[in-house]
Request: fold
Amino acid sequence: MRRLALAVSMAAALVAGVSGCTGQPAPARWVTPSPPPGETSAPRLAQVAPLPPLPVPRAALDVSQQEVTYRREGRVLRTVIWLPSSPSKLPAVVFSHGLNGTPESFAPLLTTWAAAGFVVIAPAYPNTTRSAPRIDVYDVLNQPADASFVLSQVLAGPLGKRIDGERLAAAGHSAGAITTVGLFTAGRDTRLHAGIILAGSGLGVGTAFTGTPASLLFVHGDADPLVSYASGKATYDVVPWSKAMLTLPGGNHNDPYLRPGIPSFNEVRSLTLAFLRLELYGDASARQQLPRGPAFDDRL
Reply:
């Protein structure tokens, strides 16, 4: 009963905090300030063991797009996969969209990752994607398990031979970023070496980070009206592993991740590529491409 009550409470908070991830902004209702100095649950960070270096593609790779559908306990998971052309096994990233979103909405960012040498696996979640008969925000709590299932299916299928199973990451935006946090907390997928949280927090999935340390990158606009900056920063503060956070001054909930050509989108694209190269390719030179200055907290 206590677990059920907790799940209901978290889901209710989720409704208030992230409703309309990729729709019109609504006032944020869930704000948690960062813990005062000395009260963080992670005073010492567990450093993530770097992976052996892989040769990094020095030119953009051709990218093909394919679609496959998986089923998990009656849940239909249409999945878009962006596959770089390469004879070598490549790192992979499983990406989660936000409420009322689609994998294709993020194609400008995700195809950039793929062209840089990352297989991108992006499920469309059955009750939060744009084509769902009814958007059910409570269903975000089921999505970490969906993401892990899709990753397992891809690795076990024909594309598995194209992926380096030791070099896996998760990423997501808004409710998809909450899904991604869940993959390192309540729904820990220990195969994941790194994660990217775009405009997200631990709302609903908790902040009890567990399992083998993984490097996490947070990106959040300080003018986000849907998932408050304070909630994202509070989640970042308690990550006990290698981590970094980019604050986007004046950044809102969608534009830095969905609008190619604007400065904040270009900044997010460059940072996420450098992070993925550093963490999944073991490319030490990528560290030089990370931002400098007070807007970027780097503890990688």
